[in-house]
Input
Amino acid sequence: MPIEILMPALSPTMEEGNLSKWLKNEGDKVVAGDVIAEIETDKATMEVEAVDEGTLAKIVVPAGTEGVKVNAVIAVLAVEGEDTDKAGEAIGEEPAKAETAAPAPAAAKSEAAAPVAAAPKSEIAADPDVPAGTEMVSTTVREALRDAMAEEMRRDGDVFVMGEEVAEYQGAYKITQGLLQEFGPRRVVDTPITEHGFAGVGVGAAMAGLKPIVEFMTFNFAMQAIDQIINSAAKTLYMSGGQMGAPIVFRGPNGAAARVAAQHSQCYAAWYSHIPGLKVVMPYTAADAKGLLKAAIRDPNPVIFLENEILYGQSFDVPKLDDFVLPIGKARIHKHGKDVTIVSFGIGMTYAVKAETELRGMGIDAEIIDLRTIRPLDFDTIIASVKKTNRLVVVEEGFPQSSVGDHIASQVSQRAFDFLDAPVITIAGKDVPMPYAANLEKLALPNVGEVIEAVKAVTYR
Amino acid sequence: MATAARKAPAKSKSEGKSGLSAPKPAEFTKDEELAAYRHMLLIRRFEEKAGQLYGMGFIGGFCHLYIGQEAVVTGMKMALIDGDQMITAYRDHGHMLAMELSPRGVMAELTGRRGGLSRGKGGSMHMFSKEKHFYGGHGIVGAQVSLGTGLAFANRYRDNNNVSLTYFGDGAANQGQVYESFNMASLWKLPVIYIIENNRYAMGTSVSRSSAETNFSHRGASFKIPGIQVDGMDVRAVKSAGDQATEWCRGGNGPIILEMQTYRYRGHSMSDPAKYRSKEEVQKMRSEHDPIEQVKARLTEKKWATEDELKAIDKEVRDIVADAAEFAQNDAEPDPSELWTDIVL
Output
């Protein structure tokens, strides 16, 4: 069979071009890689190379022709043993075969025929039962995080922790205290100050099957590494068609600390929650910190685990169990109530909890939901609560635009509009970089008064 | 020959310290010459076909061809043992074929079909195979260098004697995370070979316009990483440098840099008219330094293969590529339900 040489496209958007020059004549022998012609568009001139070996039997589109459609036959190549005249005739009689061959399957058709299917819903198990009589131990968030890592490192030799000052210094915030002593420098790895690099090293190790815990001294510095987190860690499973993923935990303090100003004070919950392929966890209590960090380390996906410096020293009851693991993706009803739903997470919960006490004094029975996981977000628990209370306030410390609260408000208005008796109110940090001055810093963050005012507004008090 | 026209590699401080310098090109046996010829030809023909399918609209988006650089992956692959990993950036088709990923799977991924290696969800720049120890296929320039260092970290953690082959270009060599990775790899003595494929142009910017130090084998000097300049157009030179580098890494000496001096015949991507270099320059490389022609000449000269035998290999390779192209054009697109799979496990 003679081979048709087609007008090539220089880019997926090119539809036609000019055939400016032939560099081979009819009857010339060509081998693969030989430049046979030049084509041009308004943007560029390109050489057309032969892909096959043979004799140029016929030039169908002469040099100087303008507006040659992509995929039109421009020449015919006779392969070895073929009669060049016949090969030329076989196809050469229809020089105007200009219609595009439409090689790609008709995308437009399939778009019309098949509306985009909804994302399948996956069931997430409830929290495990804590047996009656289980001893509760008052534990700081700091100790709970350390215990979670130590337990998982004892359980699985592939788990290791790396980051700045995690080993000999015992952790910049003492979260990795004692780990070097127990597990040694092979598994507790001090890194240079090189977030972009060590985040990538962690992801590479995870792709090779290890289970790294990468500590960022704070998540502010993870912005140096955000390309590796998003482009490498979060997307590889999808881009590989499920062959290869990154079982890795990125953890560290997130959000405003105290008086450290703009570059060290911001909440990344909304940022990371934007990314398919990531899980985002942001615990408030020590029990959740422990149970969810253990779950994050076991999770085969990249997990962003957002802690908070101010919460590190706070104590909560943690059940004394051999293996206390909580489900990622399940909110926890912190306090049951009937008049209004307050949704929060992480340090935002401190405002919600304090407001609830005062609201009780005013005769308002608020339900508090601690999201614990920001992605996947447990809308079922939120919607069920809103259907009961008909009112919703969301509290977080992050910036207001495109916040977690905005997303919840949007979803609730779409899924439970008829159940709402008042507009959803979202409380967030102010839309300003974090100031240094004590009074301004206080103004930039949410406060208990704002939560109370919001609840009063949605309950029409 | 290729090396004669180039500046001989200067002896760097790091080379002095490690005592490393470019080894002599390996003497290939007949079987090695034939294997190198066949492997390089497969990449060449595959890429030409990919270029053609791109021109016909079967392949979308970006498509970066490896034509001209075939000796680099082919020679390095000959130096590997089972379990050694490979990772590279977006000019990755040749690396995948060298690591024996299926030509059908690669081509069908280029056309975005369900039989593609990533089930049509990765495309030209994103393909992987855990089974064949190929870790991508990465679209972000330089990101694969940290990842490849992480693969080496895993080897060291497991003490498994494997080496990570981390490829990047002269362009990526100016990214910050490359040096962050160099530092950690040297500090922790990680078994990683940094293979800098210096094809002289970072997209359209020549190395002399983008790099203060154009001898890329010196780029590890601040990190005590030795480096060697290699004639990347001569598969035998690549193989012997690969042997030396893998031995260095397996010996617990830490990372090493191989600067492969190579050349891409085509533009940066399919839509690059390559106005930044002369036709004469390209033509000179093709006619005087072509990696495949070099092997072919030796095979003929030593009478290790007749014209007919070489033609038979050509035909065999052509058939593999034709079959891959046929499959890639006719395989179905991914099922719409694939939109939602493989996001999280």
Notes: Chain B has a mean pLDDT of 92. The radius of gyration of chain B is 19 Å. The CA atoms of residues 225 and 272 of chain B lie 35 Å apart.
